[in-house]
Design a protein that fits this description.
The chain is an alpha/beta fold. 47% of the residues lie in helices and 19% in strands. It has 10 helices and 8 strands. It has helices at residues 7-12, 18-24, 28-36, 43-56, 61-64, 76-88, 97-116, 160-170, 172-187, 214-237, and strands at 3-4, 65-67, 93-95, 123-132, 135-145, 148-155, 193-200, 207-210. It has a 6-stranded mixed sheet, with helices on both faces. It has a two-stranded parallel sheet with strand order 2-3. It starts with a strand and ends in a 27-residue tail after the last helix.
Length: 264
């Protein structure tokens, strides 16, 4: 089975993933900038990654994370305590006390929601690489439970409107389609569906589970094929263009074949 066994190997594996494909759909030049620019970890990304670990692989927390002590690094004692802490936790992701406490709370609500839905993961943090008509693809799937693939999202708004906004803004429909394609090619098993668990990052830490409907999934299929086609063309030519050089007509409404921005 074309499985990748750790995150470091996954990041280094030379294949197109859904995150990079989203930049490719902006332009080929944006894709090149994305894959060739070092990415600094943001506080939001750090928090989301911690929640994922706490929900999916809690046994890894002590090896991956440490909570910073409350010390005054301006004083001699504070500097010494911090230096000792940093040495003891070298290589770990450091969270402040508030991040750690909130992360554990959010994770507990996520676990409760999964339990309510009867979700028992067969596998978590599974990573695959496949060949899709000559194009190397990869995917890192949060969890597999029976016939369903799962992904956990921390969010500010888990209402139906909030989930729809997030799906549109971050192309989560493309992620769902991408993961299903890669999983099926890698395992030979066709999942019944892909489900997202959204959990809010502030009280009351509300949760919601959703599947993406057929219209949004049809857009995902279109985006997927467009990304694959563009990747194939640019890889063959060695040219990774940005936006068109010609003058574009931008209007409120326009035919689907134009570059017009529509506000539906």
């Amino acid at each position: 089975m074309p499985q990748i066994h750790d995150r470091k190997e996954y990041r280094a594996f030379p294949a197109l993933n859904q995150s990079a494909a989203k930049h490719l759909l902006v332009s080929a030049s944006h894709y090149q900038a994305y894959i060739n620019t070092p990415h600094e970890e943001t506080k939001a990304l750090r928090f989301g990654t911690f929640v994922h670990s706490a929900v999916l692989e809690p046994h890894t927390l002590d090896d991956l994370y440490a909570t910073a002590p409350d010390v005054d690094k301006r004083t001699k004692d504070g500097k010494e305590q911090w230096a000792a802490f940093a040495t003891a936790n070298a290589g770990k992701t450091i969270l402040d006390a508030e991040e750690s406490a909130t992360g554990h709370l959010v994770a507990s609500f996520a676990r409760l929601a999964l339990k309510k839905h009867g979700v028992k993961f067969d596998e978590t943090e599974v990573m695959y690489h496949v060949d899709y008509n000559g194009i190397p693809l990869k995917a890192a799937i949060d969890g597999v439970a029976g016939d369903y693939l799962w992904d956990i999202k921390t969010t500010d708004d888990a209402s139906a409107a909030g989930m729809l906004k997030a799906i549109r803004n971050y192309r989560y429909n493309l992620q769902a389609y991408w993961y299903r394609i890669v999983y099926e090619l890698a395992t030979g098993r066709r999942p019944l569906g892909f489900r997202f668990l959204f959990v809010e990052k502030e009280p009351p830490y509300a949760t919601a589970v959703c599947e993406i409907g057929p219209e949004l999934m049809s857009w995902a299929v279109s985006d997927f094929e467009k990304a694959i086609s563009l990747y194939r063309e640019c890889s063959a030519s060695g040219v990774w263009p940005a936006y068109p050089d010609d003058v574009q007509v931008i209007d409120v409404k326009g035919p689907s074949t134009s570059t017009a921005i529509t506000f539906a």
